[in-house]
């Protein structure tokens, strides 16, 4: 705005000088060259400053190959850039003098439900009034990596759909196989306590959240999981499906999982019996997802 005012005043002075000082005579006027960048407002070139640092990598091991890569999607007004395990940004394509270019969220947590990584949560983006912008990235099976859809269900809360072959296998996003042995043991013990009714559902959710925090899936300070999120006996685990990874050549998980599904069906009629991924012995658990 200051630039526009300065130009207007300069032109006005030139006109007044011509009318009042020169008796209608013509003379040469040398215009100074425009300073570099005077009329450009390429905010996208300016570095964006994150309020917090991204969390460390966590989650399915095959997702590690996405580190350092970014995926773009543009519509008529904005360009969005999703960089897994880093941040997500928005760049306004408007020609107005101050287009918005900013951060919609910084990588922090996994959303976990039914023993499955269901979404990436990116938090503490640029300020939006009294709150910070946040983003949730859900996944969809596809032959190639691409950012498919972007929406804003609530003000300054964004929802992205990321297509990838990394989620095509029915067991690709399971949480339990990614845990270290001591955390698996802790989860086994916790589930046993809950089955024996030694702890309440609320207590179970609280302790399960702590296990996920120790694994780095959830940052300290995140609220305990809801009942739905911590339900270990998901029907999803019984869906063998026919999908296979399209970018990972070796994946031999199905044999053990088919055995588990048969075991679940056989034991479902036994009163009080609980069968889940934890029912497998240590050797079988380690071999259920070897890709």
Automatic annotation (TrEMBL):
GO CC, one annotated term: Golgi apparatus
Keyword Disulfide bond: yes
Gene3D superfamilies the record matches: Mannose-6-phosphate receptor binding domain
Record keywords: Disulfide bond, Signal
PROSITE patterns: DMAP1_BIND, MRH
Signal peptide: 1-24
Pfam short name (any one): PRKCSH_1
Ranges for domain MRH: 68-170
InterPro entries the record matches: DMAP1-bd, Gtb1-like, Man6P_isomerase_rcpt-bd_dom_sf, MRH_dom, PRKCSH
Residue ranges of every copy of the DMAP1-binding domain listed in the record: 175-280
Keyword Signal tagged: yes
Superkingdom to which the source organism belongs: Eukaryota
Entry protein name: N-acetylglucosamine-1-phosphotransferase subunit gamma isoform X3
């Amino acid at each position: 705005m200051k630039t526009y005012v300065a130009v207007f005043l300069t032109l006005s002075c030139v006109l007044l000088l011509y009318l009042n000082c020169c008796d209608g005579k013509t003379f040469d006027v040398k215009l100074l060259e425009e300073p570099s960048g005077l009329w450009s407002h390429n905010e996208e070139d300016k570095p964006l400053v994150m309020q917090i640092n991204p969390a460390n990598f966590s989650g399915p091991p095959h997702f590690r190959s996405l580190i350092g890569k970014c995926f773009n999607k543009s519509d008529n007004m904005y360009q969005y850039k999703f960089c897994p395990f880093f941040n997500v940004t928005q760049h306004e394509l408007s020609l107005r003098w101050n287009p918005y270019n900013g951060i919609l969220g910084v990588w922090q947590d996994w959303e976990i439900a039914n023993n499955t990584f269901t979404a990436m949560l990116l938090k503490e983006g640029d300020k939006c009034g009294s709150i910070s912008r946040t983003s949730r990235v859900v996944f969809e099976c596809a032959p190639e990596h691409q950012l498919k859809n972007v929406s804003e269900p609530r003000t300054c809360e964004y929802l992205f759909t990321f297509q990838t072959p990394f989620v095509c296998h029915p067991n690709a996003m399971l949480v339990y196989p990614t845990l270290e042995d001591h955390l698996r043991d802790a989860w086994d013990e916790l589930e046993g306590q809950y089955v024996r009714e030694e702890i309440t559902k609320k207590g179970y959710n609280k302790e399960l959240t702590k296990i996920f925090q120790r694994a780095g899936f959830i940052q300290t300070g995140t609220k305990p999981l809801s009942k739905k999120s911590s339900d270990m006996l998901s029907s999803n685990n019984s869906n063998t499906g026919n999908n296979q990874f399209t970018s990972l050549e070796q994946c031999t998980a199905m044999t053990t999982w088919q055995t588990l599904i048969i075991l679940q069906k056989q034991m479902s009629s036994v009163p009080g019996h609980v069968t889940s991924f934890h029912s497998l012995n240590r050797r079988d658990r380690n071999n259920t997802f070897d890709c």
